[in-house]
Write a structure and sequence with these properties.
This protein is an alpha/beta fold. It contains ten helices and 18 strands. The strands form four sheets. The protein has a six-stranded mixed β-sheet with strand order 1-4-3-2-5-8, sandwiched between helices. Strands 13-16-15-14-17-18 form a six-stranded antiparallel β-barrel. The longest helix has 17 residues, at 103-119.
Length: 375
């Protein structure tokens, strides 16, 4: 379990009846640890498992010190209010509750990577990195230290026989963010909400009387609650100013650092010219940001590095649907494996472009069959 200071246990019992029911559950069956964020999704996942007769243990990861930020008062992920909300859920359900400090691992694997990627002119995806390196590795080890070989989260995705699939609710599907979760963890992880729509989750939360049933969702990155990515990076790096140029190399503007830009961006460019301009390239070495018409974003070929396969890496090209952003509609393509990397050859040009640093995830129907990072 690591140092005693890194784990806080608070057994939460809410009334004699729940305590008695909990004691009966604890007397038999192997426990299942549920990762609680303080939000309605993970709370409902825990409640449904309790209702199904599982011996549930709640566990919250403290990943980022949000004291003194908007997160500490706004009820966003990583804030003290979220830890308290998770505790109240456990009290309501009559299950044990643990708080586990993984701030150091999170800072190294997610926050530092986020800053470094933006400073290098790429667009990182911290949720993918967190799922890959923090949530399903260290958390599962913590669960096993408590005698649990299984864990569950409130993600909207499905796991069947160790294979990862899209959720039933297409609008809430999070399989894109989960493609890099450790293969070894897939047999041990459960996604109780994978077959539900979001409105059904809310209905279950209300039916079960969860104290977070009406809690609003956060749409921002947990450690950047105000949405100011550039400001966050600027406080931790030393971005240098540079030029904004057109495709002929003519200077059309200036900028305060490449961390302000991502390929495909249109807003906030403030450049000369009558026609709309989009960011078509970011070069951190020369500190030049190139802009051009939307047509210049189109890509027929995408290089993908550090590809993760759920099984044996394929050697021959194969057909797949490739998704390059969370809200992007998967595009038909031919994927050509090249050692640890791959090349995606699209059937039709991807008109919105592909931002280096983002994930490219390969699907066969609803199944995730691989993915990596756009180079």
């Amino acid at each position: 379990m690591g140092n005693a200071s890194s784990v806080t246990r608070a057994v939460c019992l809410d009334g004699p009846a729940r305590a008695a029911n909990h004691a009966r559950r604890m007397s038999s069956a192997e426990p299942i640890v549920v990762a609680l964020s303080g939000g309605v999704d993970s709370a409902t996942a825990a409640a449904l498992l309790v209702e199904a007769g599982e011996r549930v243990v709640g566990m919250t990861l403290r990943l980022y010190d949000a004291r003194g930020t908007a997160a500490s008062v706004g009820g966003r992920c990583c804030g003290p209010r979220d830890v308290e909300d998770a505790r109240r859920v456990c009290a309501h359900l009559g299950i044990p509750f643990y708080v586990v400090d993984h701030a150091e691992e999170f800072g190294r694997a997610v926050v530092e990577d986020f800053v470094a990627e933006y400073a290098a002119g790429r667009t990182p995806n911290p949720c993918v990195r967190c799922n890959e390196q923090v949530k399903f590795g260290p958390l599962l080890r913590r669960a096993r230290a408590l005698g649990a070989s299984r864990m569950a989260t409130g993600h909207y995705a499905r796991l069947e026989g160790g294979r990862l699939y899209r959720a039933a609710d297409e609008a809430k599907d999070q399989s894109y963010f989960l493609f890099a979760m450790p293969v070894a963890a897939r047999e041990a992880v459960r996604f109780p909400l994978g077959g539900l729509r979001k409105d059904e989750t809310r209905a279950h939360a209300a039916r079960l009387g969860l104290p977070v049933a009406d809690k609003a969702e956060s749409q921002e990155i947990c450690f950047v609650p105000d949405g100011d990515h550039a400001g966050f990076v600027a406080k931790r790096a030393a971005p240098a100013p540079g030029e904004i140029v057109d495709e002929e190399g003519r200077v059309v503007g200036a900028h305060g650092g490449v961390h302000h830009f991502t390929v495909g961006q249109r807003r906030g460019l403030r450049v000369a010219g009558a026609s709309p301009s989009y960011v078509v390239a970011v070069d951190a070495l020369t500190r030049r940001v190139t802009v051009g018409p939307r047509a210049r974003l189109a890509r027929e070929r995408i290089e993908v590095r550090d590809v993760r396969w759920p099984g044996v890496a394929p050697e021959l090209p194969f057909a797949a649907a490739v998704q390059v952003r969370h809200r992007h509609r998967p595009a038909p393509a031919r994927v050509v494996p090249r050692g640890a990397d791959a090349v995606v050859e699209l059937e039709a040009p991807l008109e919105s472009g592909a931002a280096p640093g983002q994930a490219a995830v390969f699907y066969s129907g609803d199944e995730v069959i691989g993915g990596g990072w756009i180079a």
